[in-house]
Amino acid sequence: MTMLRTHTLSFRGRQGGLGLIGLLVMIGIALCVAVVGMRVSPTVVEFLAAKRAIHRIAEAGTRSSGEIVKAFDEMSAIDDISSITGRDLRIERAGAIVTLSFAYEKRIPLFGRASLLLQYDATASSN
């Protein structure tokens, strides 16, 4: 009987788990990740819309530079792209192939003097 009791006590001593402090630390980390994610996601959505826009323009075929700028500005108004305009596009021609590209930086304030700097760039070519 005493052997059974000591075995049970030693088994309880070895049990582990997540304590209150560990739980609070995990919640704090999850909140920080969620806040950063909520601040970054609109800029990622905007970048993906701009990238889709230049791919659509490139697939549409060869156009003049003015038409490309105008088409991008029209798509920007629809897709709510405000970080770049049609004038910010780099338009390069190599024969019949037109290459469109852009690059920009987005600074996201996190807290106090800390901020996150994201660098976006994309390229699309006509075939």
What is shown here, in short?
The protein is α+β, with helices and mostly antiparallel strands.
Could you characterize the architecture of this molecule?
54% of the residues lie in helices and 25% in strands. The protein is elongated and about 75 Å long. It is α+β, with helices and mostly antiparallel strands and 127 residues long. Helix 2 (20-60) packs antiparallel against helix 3. The chain has helices spanning 2-13, 20-60, 65-79, and strands spanning 90-94, 97-111, 114-125. It has a domain at 43-127.
Rg for CA atoms: 27 Å
Structural class: alpha+beta
Mean pLDDT, nearest integer?
87
Strand content: 25-35%
User: Percent helix among the residues?
Assistant: 40-55%
Strand order of the largest sheet: 1-2-3
Number of strands: 3
